[in-house]
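Supplementary material to the annual report.
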Amino acid sequence: MILGKVIGNIVTVIKDEKYNGLKVMIVQEMDMNGNLEQNYFISIDLIGVGIDEVVMVVNGTPARSSDETFDKGVDSIIVAKIEILIFEDRELKFQ
Amino acid sequence: MLYAKVIGKTYSSFKHHALEGIDIKIIQELEIKTKNLVGKPFLALDPIGVAIGEYVGYEVSTQATWPFENKLVPTDSTITAIIDYISI
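Predicted assembly:
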C-alpha cells in the first residue's frame, strides 16, 4: 500500500449503477518523509476521510477485495487514516 | 514471496472494518545477496506481528489477500513470514 494525502473530491452526476453510494476523492502520493510526490490517484473512499488527511491507499485488483467494492470496477481505495508514522527514528504526526 | 526489512510502523485508529486489529508496518524490499535495501519504502499489513528491524517475507498484489481465507480484506501487500536465516 502507499501513503497519500487527500487533496480534493470529485462530484459526478452520471455514474454506473454499481458506483452508487461510493465517495470519490483525489489523492496525491506521499513519501515516508512526508513530502508530496507528483503522482495522483482517483480513489474510492470507504471510511469517510476529509481533505488534507493522510491516508493509506490500496491500488490494483485487491481494491475489489472489500465488502463495499466486491465485483465493481474499482482499482484504488482509501482504507485507513494514518495518524502517526514512525520511520528511521523519526516520528511524524498528521493532524 | 518477496523479501523485505521492516523499517517503521504506523498508528491508525480510523480504518476499514476488515483491517481492525491488524498492524500496518513500513517495509522496504531487500536484495537478498547483498542485503541492500532497494526501491521505495511502502506500507504493508502485518497479521503475524513483526518487530522493526526484522527481515520478513511478504506477498504483493492479489495474493496479499489470500492469507485471510474467508474474509474480504483490502490489501495489496501483506507480511506472511519472518526470515531467520538465508543460505545461498
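Chain B touches chain A through 32 residues (CB under 8 Å).
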